[in-house]
Structure formats: structure tokens, C-alpha cells
Design a protein that fits this description.
It is built from 11 helices and 9 strands. It is of the alpha/beta class. The protein has one domain: TIM Barrel (Alpha-Beta Barrel), CATH 3.20.20.70. Helix 3 (55-62) links the parallel strand 2 and strand 3. It is globular, with a radius of gyration of 16 Å.
Length: 211
């Protein structure tokens, strides 16, 4: 199973970051400041979730930050995948595996990392041509121990654990060789974004990037 050039470039970028901040941004106008704060703290990527109507606008505005790789998260439909692509997202992530989204993202050339929680779901994602998948909810399905177990069976698959990952256990997840990067919402908690606490976002990012 080969990974496409575009997918490989995105995966290399996410691996270099180690953590993908997962942001839910209610006001799209704040997206560039959030992205700039992360970049200043040493993290050059962000995943903006489709949990608000303005997600596509937030992605589009975040792309104005030079050097920031912007992805779309919580992509639950083909329409959202198209909106993410049209907004300029460099990748898309979902909590589950939807074959229609896989097909649309392949047609658009948009790297897509579907979610899995079991060995059977990993199998299905592989059949659909995915070499990197999101593991969600990571802590609830077994955390690093689960990842080590499935890595032994699927050595060709890279994992992006999300859900229950924070500063206290990040190192445990990143110690698993098959982990590409971890999704982390604690870096960009909604209240930090809403209240414009960009210095705190930068501080949290810096704590992670110097590990």
C-alpha cells in the first residue's frame, strides 16, 4: 500500500509538529490570531473543526498565516469535505470512516485521515487506501497500550490518536513509533479562543514544542 505524494508531505509536516491543535472557532475572524499564536509557540499546524457554520471561513482566514498548515476536522459529510477543499484546507480528518468522504477527498486530491476505534475499522480503512488514520477516542479505546498492540499487527499504518490526549500523557503517546502526531484540543480550548487569550495559546504551544 503506497501513500500519495501529497499525503506524504502532509504526514511529514504533522509528524514534525508532533501535536495537531484541534480548534473549534466560533468567530472565524479570530482564526488568524489563533494560528499565529500556535506558530509563534513552535507548532506549525492546526485542525479547525466543522462544529460551527463558519468553519470554512475560519480555515480560509487561517491560511493567511504564512507557514501554517491548516486542516479541517470533524468532517462528517461529502459537502463538508468539498467546503474544506474549497477553503484551502491541506488535509481533512473525521472521527469515523465514511466511504463517500473517502471517495470525494480522493477525487479532490485532499489528504483524508478517517477515524478508527477497532482492528476491524483499521482493516476497513486500509481497504479504502488509507495509510494514516485517526484513533478516536484514543484514551477510551486503550491509549498507548492499544496503539502498541495494533501497530504490531498493522506495521504499515500510521496513527493520529485524539481524545483524552493532554500535556500529562502526550509523551506516552509519542513514544509509540507508529504515532504520526496527536490531536490536542487543550492547546486551543474554546474559552481561550473566545476570550482572545492568544498569549496563553502561545505558551501552551511552546510547552509542547520544546519537549
Amino acid at each position: 500500500m503506497e501513500i500519495s505524494v501529497s499525503d506524504a508531505l502532509v504526514v511529514d509536516c504533522l509528524r514534525a509538529c508532533g501535536v495537531v491543535p484541534v480548534a473549534t472557532i466560533e468567530d472565524p475572524a479570530l482564526a488568524p490570531e489563533v494560528g499565529a499564536a500556535l506558530l509563534a509557540g513552535g507548532i506549525g499546524c492546526i485542525e479547525i473543526t466543522f462544529r460551527h457554520a463558519g468553519a470554512a471561513d475560519a480555515i480560509r482566514l487561517a491560511r493567511e498565516v504564512d507557514g501554517l498548515v491548516v486542516g479541517a476536522g470533524t468532517v462528517l459529510s461529502a459537502e463538508q469535505a468539498r467546503a474544506a477543499h474549497d477553503a484551502g484546507a491541506s488535509f481533512a480528518v473525521a472521527p469515523g470512516t465514511n466511504e463517500e468522504i473517502v471517495r470525494v477527498c480522493d477525487e479532490l486530491g485532499l489528504p483524508f485521515f478517517p477515524g478508527v476505534a477497532t482492528a476491524s475499522e483499521i482493516e476497513r480503512a486500509r481497504v479504502l487506501g488509507r495509510q494514516v488514520v485517526k484513533v478516536f477516542p484514543a484514551a477510551q479505546v486503550g491509549g498507548p497500550a492499544f496503539l502498541r498492540a495494533v501497530s504490531a499487527t498493522y506495521p504499515d499504518v500510521g496513527f493520529m490518536p485524539t481524545g483524552g490526549v493532554d500535556a500529562s500523557n502526550l509523551a506516552d503517546y509519542l513514544a509509540v513509533p507508529s504515532v504520526v502526531a496527536c490531536g490536542g484540543s487543550w492547546l486551543v480550548r474554546p474559552e481561550l479562543v473566545r476570550e482572545g487569550r492568544f498569549d496563553e495559546i502561545e505558551r501552551l504551544a511552546r510547552e509542547v514544542s520544546v519537549r
